[in-house]
Amino acid sequence: MKPFNVFVDFTTGELKPGKRVVRRLSDVRYIFQNQEAAEAMLREGDPLVYEVIYAEIPEEPGHLAHCTTIIYPGKVGQEFFLTKGHLHEKLDTAEIYFCLRGEGRLIMASPEGECEVLPMYPGTASYIPPFWSHRSVNVGREPLIFYCIFPADAGHDYATIEETGFPKVVLEEDGQVVVRENPKWKPKR
Ligand code: PAN
Ligand code: ZN
Predict the structure, then answer these.
(1) Is residue 160 part of a domain?
(2) Rg (the chain; Cα; Å)
(3) How many domains would you assign to the chain?
(4) 99 lines ligand 1 (CB under 6 A)
(5) CA–CA separation, 72 vs 33, rounded Å?
(6) End-to-end CA distance of the chain, in Å?
(7) Residues 104, 47, 45, 159: is their CA dihedral positive or negative?
(8) Does the beta carbon of 164 lie inside 6 Å of ligand 1?
(9) Are the C-beta atoms of residues 155 and 90 closer than 8 Å to each other?
(10) How confident is the model at residue 187 (pLDDT cuts 50, 70, 90)?
(11) Please, which residues have CB less than 5 A from ligand 2, an ion?
(12) Is residue 1 part of a domain?
């Protein structure tokens, strides 16, 4: 293969040429704390929660995958729109998230159950160490857009997070962004 450019639009998050993955509320309803609020919203429609646009890179050792993520502004109950979150199948692979637009939080958890929540705003380059699960949250009123780079053969394990959740949640309380312990978190034994 030959070197090539893709073009990233910092305002829309569009990455061209790229492959788009769309996550609507109906696809990701299980990720929210308040299931009744999610079902009530779904009766009114099926909003876009986030999109990921991948550069076309072979999923092979030696390559670097890269993509943009656009998380739309919104909440389910008190909880801000967020990504499903995952571990890499190859656990010992790191990642970098570079924020282009908006305001967010990056929630990360280590296998020992430590949890870190970093702010995301234009210019933050967040390092996700190997073995840490990760998920991002849009806490603002505009789209949260960030650019990610990770080993192309890392793979994504969503099932573990679907079972355990994350130790912390990001909510809006009295107009403030707050980080709370997740009462539904199930530490892995
Ligand atoms: C990111 C994420 C992206 C969407 O590119 O895949 O933000 O989040 P979910 O994959 O959890 O739905 C990344 O961490 N790649 O490894
Ligand atoms: Zn990742």
Answers:
(1) yes
(2) 16
(3) 1
(4) no
(5) 18
(6) 44
(7) negative
(8) no
(9) yes
(10) confident
(11) 95
(12) no
CA distance 149 to 180: 29
User: Domain of 11: which CATH number?
Assistant: 2.60.120.10
Distance CA 61, CA 77 (A): 41
Summarised one tens digit per residue, pLDDT across range 101-153 is 999 999 999 999 999 999 999 999 999 999 999 999 999 999 999 999 999 99
Q: For 56-66, write each residue's pLDDT tens digit.
A: 999 999 999 99
- The CA 156 to ligand 2 mean position distance, Å, reads 7
Residue 30 to residue 84: CA distance in whole angstroms: 9
Distance CA 115, CA 130 (A): 14
Name, in order, each residue with C-beta under 8 angstroms of 67's C-beta and a sequence gap of 6 or more.
15, 18, 52, 53, 54, 55, 147, 148
Instruction: Tell whether 61 is covered by a domain.
Output: yes
User: Residue 157 domain-assigned?
Assistant: yes
CA-nearest residue for atom 7, ligand 1, is: 69
Produce one character per residue of 31-59: b if its CB has 16 or more CB atoms within 10 Å, e if not.
Answer: bbbeeebbeebeeeeeebbbbbbbbeeee
Q: Give the range of the structural domain holding residue 53, as residue numbers without chain letter.
A: 7-181
